[in-house]
Amino acid sequence: MREYRVLIIGFGNVGQAFFELLNLKKHLLGINFIVTGIIDRSRGLISNPSPGVISEAHTGKLLGKKVVLDQIPGFIEESNADIVCEFTDLNIKDKGEPAFTYLSTALRSGKHVITTNKGPVAFHYDELMELSRKYNRLIRFKGTVMAGTPSFNILDLLPGTRVEYFMGILNGTTNYILTRMYEGLTFDEALREAQELGYAEADPSLDIDGVDPALKAVILSRVIGWRHRFEDVEVQGIRDVDVKRHGDRVIKLIAHANADRVYVKPIPLERGNILANVSRNLNALTLKLDTLGEITVVGPGAGRMETAQAALTDLMYIVNHVNYLGR
Amino acid sequence: MREYRVLIIGFGNVGQAFFELLNLKKHLLGINFIVTGIIDRSRGLISNPSPGVISEAHTGKLLGKKVVLDQIPGFIEESNADIVCEFTDLNIKDKGEPAFTYLSTALRSGKHVITTNKGPVAFHYDELMELSRKYNRLIRFKGTVMAGTPSFNILDLLPGTRVEYFMGILNGTTNYILTRMYEGLTFDEALREAQELGYAEADPSLDIDGVDPALKAVILSRVIGWRHRFEDVEVQGIRDVDVKRHGDRVIKLIAHANADRVYVKPIPLERGNILANVSRNLNALTLKLDTLGEITVVGPGAGRMETAQAALTDLMYIVNHVNYLGR
What we know:
Chains A, B: Pathway: Amino-acid biosynthesis; L-methionine biosynthesis via de novo pathway; L-homoserine from L-aspartate: step 3/3; Amino-acid biosynthesis; L-threonine biosynthesis; L-threonine from L-aspartate: step 3/5. The structure is a homodimer of 327-residue chains. Chain A is an alpha/beta fold.
C-alpha cells in the first residue's frame, strides 16, 4: 500500500474531523496516510499522534509540546511530511496571514499543500500559484468554497467548456437567516436562533455583511480565470433586507461574477428559479457554460465533516496526480 | 501536440455535434484529435473526413462508401483508431445490439471506447467491464445519464464517500409534460406540444412509460456498485398522473435506488424539495452521501451539443488516464 506522510496545522473542528475521516477511510481508499504531526496554537505540537488523540482534542487544552506561533514555519520546514494540511482560522485583517506563510513555507520546502482557509487563497492567489509552479508541488483548496460539495472542481468534469458567468448562494448563515425571515421571524430573531444553533458566530458580520461570500466569489473567479480581487467585489449584505417587499419573489444573498464584474448582493429571485428554493443552510452554485447552458450544484457549504471531506478530496487528488517515486 | 485517432460510429445528431465540438475545442484542449473515419448506416463509410463533411450530414444521404450493417464490426476491427466513439440508436428489443457488438469488437481489437447509448451499458454492463479489464482498455459512457451534465461522474470528486441512495428526475420529456400539465394543459395537449418541439418522439412510450429513466437508474446503480438489472426496476410511467389530486405537492417522475431496491414512479414532492422545482426539460440527480448528506446536480439531460459534451468529457478522461506511449 502506498504511503504518504501528512502534517496537520490547526486542530480545531475541521482539523479533528479530517483526522477522524482519514483514519476512517484510508483502508477504503487503499492508501496508508500517516499523520506525522499535528501543530495547534493551543493544543501544541503533537508528534506521531495516535488515533486516540482525538478524544481530548475538543477541550482545546495542551496535548503536546507547547508552541509559540513564530515557531510554526520552522516546524513545517523541518517536517518530513509529503503533504501539509492547513486548517487555521480565517484572518482578513492580516490578509490571510499567518496561513499564507505556513503554505508558502511548505511549498518552498518541497511539500504539497491543502487548505480550507479562504484567506491565503483569496489574498495571495498569484503568489501561491507561482510557488506551486516553481517548486513543482500542488496546492489544493476545495474546502474554501462550499466545503466538500463540488463547486469549482466540477469544471474538472467539463473539459473544453467556457464559463460565461456564475451565480450562487455561498453563505449558509445568511441563507438560514433569510429562510427563517420568510417563515415569519424578524432579522434579529433569526440571527439569534442561528447563533444558538451554531450557524453564526458571536460576531456574525463576515456573514451578514457579505464578506465571506465575497472571498469565495474571488476564489471561484480566479479558478475560472477571471482576475478579480477582493477589492473589486461590490458587496452588500443582508442587514437591510425587507422580505415582504418583493411580492412572490424570494430574496437570496447572491454572489455573481463574469469576466467583467463580481458582486455579492441580495437579489429577489422568481419562485421558479432553482436557487430560490435552496433553503436553510444549503449552498448552491450555478455555472452558465457554452455547451450545456446552466448547471447547478446544491449541497452543504460548511460543517466539520463536510469541510473535512473537501480536504480528503484534495488529498486524493494529490495522490492521483503525483508520480509516487518522484513525489 | 499529442495525437489520438478517433473512429465515429453513428453520424446522426449526436455524432455530428461531437464532430463539430472536437474541431471547435481541440486547440483549446491542446490535443490533436484526428477523426480517421465515420461509419453510419445511411451516410456510409467516410474515410479521413474533412471538417466540411458536416455541411451535408444533416440530410442523411450517402456521403461515403455504402455500408451493410454486418460489415461494421469488421471495419472497427481493421481500423487503426485509438478510440471508438459509438453514437448509434438505442435498441431495447435487441438488448443493446448491435451497439454491444461494436463496443466489444473495439475493445477486443485494442481500442478504448466511448458510448452515449444506454442499451449496451444497461444490458451488458458486466461483459463490458470484463472486456475492458481483459484488454486493458477504457470504456466510458457519461452520455448515457444526463448528457454532459455531471451525474455519476460527480463521485470522482467525492473520494471515500458512501452513497446511501440516489433519487432523480432523469427524463426531460416527461418532466416537460408534467410541468406543462401544472401550467394547465391536459396530458394529451402537453405531449403533442412536446412532440412539436422535438422533446418527444413520434412513439414517446420509452419516456412516458418510464423505460428511459429505468435504464439510466440501472446504469447509475451499477456505477455505484449496486447490482440491479433492468428486470429489477419497478417501473410506473406518467400515463395516469392526476396533477390536481395532491394539494400543494408537485408530482415528478422519480428514479430512486439504494442497495436493495430500484424504482421509477411518479412521486408527489413537497414544494420545498429542490427536485420539486426542477422544471421543463431539466434533469436532476440527488445523492445521499455519508459525509455530506444530500447533494444535488441540476442541468440538461439531453440535446445534441449537451450529449456531445459528455463524449468530449469521456475523451479527455481517456487522454488523461492512458500512458501516451503505452496506449
